[in-house]
Amino acid sequence: MRLLQILLLRLAMMAITLFGAAVIVFVVIRVVPGNPIAMMLPPGATDEDIARLTAHYGLDKSIPEQFVVWLTGVLKGDFGTSISLRQPVMPLVLGRLPATLELSIFALVLAVIIGGAMALTGTRFRGGRTEAVIDVANGAGLSIPDFLWALVLILTLGVLYPVFHISGRISPSLELPFTTQFYVFESLLRLRFDLWWDLLKHMFMPALALAIPLAAIIGQLLKQSLKETMHLDYVVLARTKGYGENHVILFEALRNAVLPTLTLIGVQFTFLIGGTVIIERLFSYEGLGNMAIDAVINRDLPLIQGIVLVFALLFTVVNLVVDLTYALLNPRLRNA
Amino acid sequence: MRDARGTVRRKAGLKLWLSGGWLALIALLTLAAGWVSPHDPLAQDLFAGRLPPFWVDGAEPGYLLGTDSLGRDVLSRIIYGGRVALGVALIAGVSTAIVGSVLGLIAGYYRGWADAVISRLVDIWMAFPPVLFAILLIAVLGTGLWSIIIAIIVIDWTRFCRVVRAETMNQSQMDYVSSAVVAGHVRTAILWREIGPNVLPTIVALLTLEMGIAVIVEAILSFVNLSISTDAPTWGGMIAEGRISIHQAWWVLVCPLIVLFLTVLAFSQFGEGLKDRFDPVLR
Amino acid sequence: MTCFLEIDNLSAIIRGSNDRLLRSVSLQVNIGEVHGLVGESGAGKSMIGKAVLGILPAAVEIVEGQVRLDGQDLFALNPNDRRRLIGTKAALIPQDPLTALNPSRRIGAQITDRLVDILGWTKHDAANRAAELLVEVHISDPERVLASYPHELSGGMRQRVLIASAFAANPQLVIADEPTTALDVTVQKQILRLIRELQLRHGTAMLFVTHDLGVVSKICQRLSVLFAGKIVEQADVAQFYSNPGHEYSKALMVATPKYTEPLTSLMPVDESVISAVTEEIEAADREWRGA
To answer: The pTM is what?
Structure first.
């Protein structure tokens, strides 16, 4: 019962946050000095043409009016038409969303694996040189943003020793039998491991660049939590039962130490998703972030709005999932 | 038994010296750009195009780090690019710190509806991917140095606000505040005179981090061509150009990248070093 | 009576220093016997138990002596074998029931894990055994408790669970580390009785760590009095209470509040006694360093 109450409350907060985000985007963009319509038409277009198109896109009405029009449209599922791409916004956005989702999730998985491994190894061999090395690595990961890691990766693993691809989502020569845009997922379902491997080779570097900062955060925080937990009485008691160091770390300490790290992962994951904007651009990866940059450069208002809303929605969903997971893992919150 | 305090202090000292040294070096070079720079950063010489740096065969004297496709000296462009980077770092960093910290102090100390409003604002704000927000704002504000600075303030004030708010709430509960209240001091006075100075170390450490972030944001924006509007070189712009000719002239990408890397690293390590040095627990 | 635990001349220091935390401690505990370790806080009583069980803090190092469990020299074994030996033949009843249970695991799992993982029992057998044990410690609804999480139980209940868990693998040595200190006074007596009951029933050797001389008189057959990590007196309990040998022991007895008598004044241990013992200790240290 309590869980349901929490859920409903969070959904309400989500709605408010999204609404706030929508308002901000709407207002901010309308202040744009450039006229997108004028940019779209060929030179020599008459004022009449400009006026007609402006009316067509509803840009001649007052700002509050435009907002109401847009909002009612959104509630009906109509997000307007992209000015630069001349197609309905939602299908465009939803078309690119899976690529960004797959990239973000792959990055998250990498971050958890790398960060977790660093934390566990640092705890297992604490107090010695191993831990010192891990601390230095974590420090580097924490101070350098994903943008720079991406560039370093491009240089080393893309140009100097070309192991991975530095551009695109999949090799252009391959024929794609997919029905959805969830390439990675579908290629597994269809057992097309050749395609799956090609996709992974393209995604690896952008995902790694996104993952490194998060991995460093996980590595540092989890290691700290683990080391503190190792001093607790129940862990010491487990040792007297005959369990070795590895078991004690993995099965007694970990499930308690992981909780604070989890909430942090949630917040940082939203930053990771935000990072896809520039990383996708760097790797020419056909995702939402890449489309966003073009949309802004072209002052494509409807498209920008749609993309920003989808991002905001993603963030709030992630926060919700994190809170629920925390409640599930912490027995004290579950039944109380 | 090893003295934990001493070890941390020594490491903090080293961090401070190395990072501070690098930052001082960059600052000096960029300030004295006119005298120090070997060439005019905008001067093109198509006959001297794509010359490699001095340690590679085929290099020419006078072009220490080589030239780009248009024959412009990479070293000079890096030095001038530093002006933009450090200028943005300083102004944007400090401004963001002021705005965010003030709001954080107010929210953390006065609580009540001020805190409710500010916290909600922070939540909504943080629902935006920062890079997207930045690009959006630049599209609105137009390109240019001031647009970047304003964009950084508008996007990143929440970083200071959150931390300062938490720290203020923490300090508010401490005994020295209660004694000040008991002694009859005005609330506002307590905030600025008692709590402020104790929150200051946190703010300063965060400030160096923010300056590093500002440098990155400027680099990203100049990478996507939305930075300053003149032809003046920027590190991000050089990286974007270098990306194109990466196979033919790798140094055009690598040199500014390394400088950018080291500068951002230096800012964050300087902040870490300051934090360690002035951590009241270790003092 | 066979000797199960033998500690011979055990000394321990803080790494990097020369100060001893344990000073040439020697004692023996036979099967079925309860040996009390008494002393003020910081005297090193818990440290001895931790040294036996292999859970000394990382900063503490053993520099001298032997510990023999069932005839086997613990320090001569490799770490894996040592761990196994301790896990199968010994157990700990910890001091603080609030922190000694893993908050994220159910009670049942925390009692059966040793049986299944270390001793190789089937889950079914282990579960039955856990239920039996809970009955032994007078918990009326064992099934519910086994399925519970620690935070759902009271302090007294948790200590019962910990006692049950300690006796789960039929250990031949149980170390009780101030098991009633963290409990309410009303519960203390019950728990003490419970521990005594189980110890008698299972015939375990027991090392009972406490600062309360009153408790020792009720449960132990022999005792060692500790001061600053050194055993200043070791005797049979009956003899000790009628005629304590050492000055410090006498002072401790006097200082112990007797609930049956009216409270005249609380008498701390006399300063002169402390200085006398301290001199004794320093002399012992000089001798040790010289050797």
So the answer is: 0.81
